[in-house]
Amino acid sequence: FTADRCYYCEMKGDKCIIGSDALKEGLLSLAGEYTLDDLPLLKSVIHGGKPLIVHDIHTTDLIDESLVKVCAQRRLISFIDIPVIKNGKPVAIFCIVQTTPRNWKDVEVELVQETAERSWSAIEKAKIEEAAREEEERKEFLLRLNDTIRQLEDPVEIQYEASRLVAEQLKVDRVHFAELSDDAKLVIRKDYVRSN
Predict the structure, then answer these.
(1) CB-based contact 10:17 (threshold 8 Å)
(2) Residue 102: pLDDT over 80
(3) Residue 35, Cβ density class (10 Å: 0-12 exposed, 13-18 middle, ≥19 buried)
(4) So what's the pLDDT on residue 191?
(5) pLDDT of the residue at 90
(6) 20, 52, 59, 101: most buried by Cβ count inside 10 Å?
(7) Long-range contacts of the stretch 9-13 (C-beta < 8 A, 24+)
(8) Per-residue pLDDT, 69
(9) Residue 24 zone, left/alpha/beta (φ > 0; ψ -120 to 50; rest)
């Protein structure tokens, strides 16, 4: 496309999450988490439920004057915004942006629509695979934990080994159990501290 900016905005409730954006040198990244009120242009795309193709914000009647000002401030002069709708709900918006006016061709709009749909499918597949991987890692950890502490009899050693395994699993420097004594004090019998 030789566009100046491209990003995928995932919708989670009233939150818009832009994980990253590909952009031309000199532009500021939009990556971050926003509310729909923070991004009125995307809010209008979500509420419209259909692609928004703007060749030039200064000559279009598709967006109101307040949105034109917001777009101009962010250098969003020409763009294609494609909402991704699943089960009747907006789940994402795929955006291609120019900092100058551009007459988008029908073939470009169709390609952006297809890219939006395929990207959503790939993202969903990756999320499912990541969740399965995390679940497998969790099961492996719990099995390793059970195998380790089952052999121990000393409660302090059980706490220590459990702490060590948790620290290694979570890649943290220190883990310990704290017990509440009869006089309401916290007692740490032995903690795990990762050596450098």
Answers:
(1) yes
(2) yes
(3) exposed
(4) 87
(5) 86
(6) 52
(7) 9/39, 9/42, 9/92, 9/93, 9/94, 9/95, 10/91, 10/92, 10/123, 11/46, 11/90, 11/91, 11/92, 11/93
(8) 86
(9) beta
